[in-house]
Structure formats: C-alpha cells, structure tokens
TrEMBL record:
PANTHER family: FORMATE TRANSPORTER-RELATED, INNER MEMBRANE PROTEIN YFDC. It is a multi-pass membrane protein. The chain crosses the membrane at residues 49-68, 88-106, 127-151, 179-198, 205-225, 245-267. Its main location: membrane. Residues 1-17 have a biased composition (Basic and acidic residues). It comes from Yersinia rohdei. InterPro entries: Aquaporin-like, For/NO2_transpt. Gene3D superfamilies: Glycerol uptake facilitator protein. This is Formate/nitrite transporter family protein. Keywords: Membrane, Transmembrane, Transmembrane helix. The lineage of its organism: Bacteria, Pseudomonadati, Pseudomonadota, Gammaproteobacteria, Enterobacterales. It is found in: Membrane. Residues 1-20 are annotated as: Disordered.
Length: 295
C-alpha cells in the first residue's frame, strides 16, 4: 500500500499489533475507545476497491431486512402483537452485514472518526471522506441491485410484494424534518452498538439484534435499509427519482451522520480526553498492597 494511504496518528509505526490491556488505560471506556480507534485507522487505510466491493456486498445483504420484515408483514395476522414480531425481520440484514464484517455506512460514522479526532490532519480528513464516499456509493449500488432483483425475479408472492410497498410507503409518509430527526436517533443507536461490540464477547449477535430491533420499533430512518425500501418504490414506478434524493436520502443521511459522528463520537471522545487529562498522579493512586482497612 502506498504511504499516501497511511492515516496520521501521532504515534510511531510498530511491527507488531499492540494488545489492548484495560490496566494500561484510566477507564474501561478508554480501552474500548482505543480498540475502535485502531480498527478505524485500519479502515481508513484499506484499498479503495476492497472498500467498494465490501460496501456493495453490505448493500445486497441489508436487503434481508426488507425481506424478513416484508414476509412477516404479509404472513402474520393483523394484531398488535404482529408489530413486535414483524420488526424482528428488520434485524436480519444488520446481523448478516456486521457478523460478515461488511462495510455499512452508519458503522463508519463512528469507527474511522475516532482517529480523526485524535489527529485532525488534512490527510486524515481526506481519507475519511474517501472512505465515506466509497462505502456510501457501494451501499447504494448494493441496495439498488437488491431492490431491482426483488421486483423482477420470481421469488416473492403478491402478498409479500404488496408488503414491501406498504413498508416503503410508510417511510415516505415522513416529512423531510421527520426523516432528519429520526435519522439522528438511528445514527446514535447504531454508533452505540458499535461502541458496545468490543466488550460484547460471544453476545455480539444479541447486541446487534437488540439495538437494531430498537431502531425498527421506533420506525427510525436509516440511509442504507431505507434505500432498499425506497428504491423498491422507484423501480416499480410508484415514486419519482427526485423523491428518493429528497425528502428521503439527504435528510436521512445528514441525520445519521450527526447522530453517529457529531453526537455520539464527539461525546465519547470528549470523555476519553477528559480521562487522559485527569489521570491521577502516582502519589494519588491507591496502594493495592495495603490491607483494605488502610486503603
């Protein structure tokens, strides 16, 4: 890889990857921050074609959210409990994408942003916008292919296709302001999920399920999942292209970025900076060799 793709981090390059030990940090949150920051630095330096193909795969995979929710919507009886079961389907695409380590735009509103906050150099900002552009482009290509396939391939029955339309039209019932506000909360929840993953251990799939299920229950807007739904309306002739761009895509994208980057990532980074700036002096630390009564 060319040196031009190296993210500036303010630290010397090391041949061996440093294992993150919580004892070396002032708090557990600081250790998690460092894990995500290192992961983000790797993402910033990835090959452009690797990012694009991974993002296209994620766009295709996230189509499973519309499939799952649509099938439940079509097959379940019209009862209040059906709403709870139907939205389980929304989590399917996220589970596939995240467990398969594919590139999802809303994950990247926090992971590669932490290296930028540590070292806000021009080079790092260029790498961030390159990453965002490639991942968003790939996600939209993948969701477009998925939506087009759902329409033209003889896979789904008439009831499921009608459910796809109903789900997508419910998104378009939101005003641009509602798209934006819902996108903020959606971006914040997905960023929270990313922050939880390093300490989730074997429960990662449950973290993904619970956090994305919350997004579904609240009917929040998400730029990638929503793109599958709105592309479906565009490709079947129910919606003009202009309405995909606005009132859906621009307000939702802006909301997701603000929720994930300008709210969650900034606040998370601020607490870590505060931790590092106020580490106790050696003389202030508790002597672990003393008996409990003397601590």
């Amino acid at each position: 890889m060319s040196d031009k793709l190296k993210a500036a981090s303010g630290e010397q390059q090391e041949k061996q990857e440093i294992a993150i030990n919580e004892k070396n940090f002032p708090s557990k949150a600081a250790a998690i921050h460092e894990i995500i920051r290192i992961e983000g630095k790797k993402e910033l330096e990835r090959d452009s074609f690797a990012l694009l193909w991974s993002a296209i795969a994620a766009g295709l995979s996230i189509g499973a959210s519309l499939i799952g929710k649509g099938i439940f919507h079509a097959k379940l009886p019209d009862t209040p409990a059906s709403f709870l079961l139907e939205n389980i389907g929304y989590t399917f695409g996220f589970i596939i994408v995240i467990m398969a380590r594919q590139q999802l735009f809303t994950e990247n509103t926090v992971t590669p942003v932490l290296p930028i906050m540590q070292k806000p150099s021009r080079q790092n900002f260029i790498l961030l916008f390159r990453l965002w552009g490639l991942v968003l482009l790939g996600n939209l290509i993948g969701t477009g292919i998925a939506a087009y396939s759902f329409i033209h391939m003889p896979v789904f029955d008439a009831a499921t296709r009608a459910a796809f339309i109903s789900i997508a039209q419910s998104v378009m019932d939101n005003s641009s302001g509602e798209m934006f506000a819902n996108g903020i909360f959606s971006g914040w929840i997905i960023a929270t999920m990313v922050w939880m993953m390093p300490s989730a251990g074997g429960a990662k799939i449950w973290v993904i399920f619970l956090m994305t299920y919350l997004v579904a229950l609240c009917d929040l807007t998400h730029i990638v999942v929503g793109s599958v739904e709105i592309f479906y309306l565009v490709f079947n002739g129910s919606l003009p292209w202009q309405q995909f761009i606005y009132p859906f895509a621009i307000p939702t994208l802006a909301g997701n970025i603000i929720g994930g980057t300008f709210i969650f990532a900034l606040i998370s980074h601020a607490q870590i900076r505060s931790d590092l700036a106020h580490q106790p002096k050696k003389s202030d630390k508790v002597d672990s060799n003393l008996p409990p009564s003397h601590k």
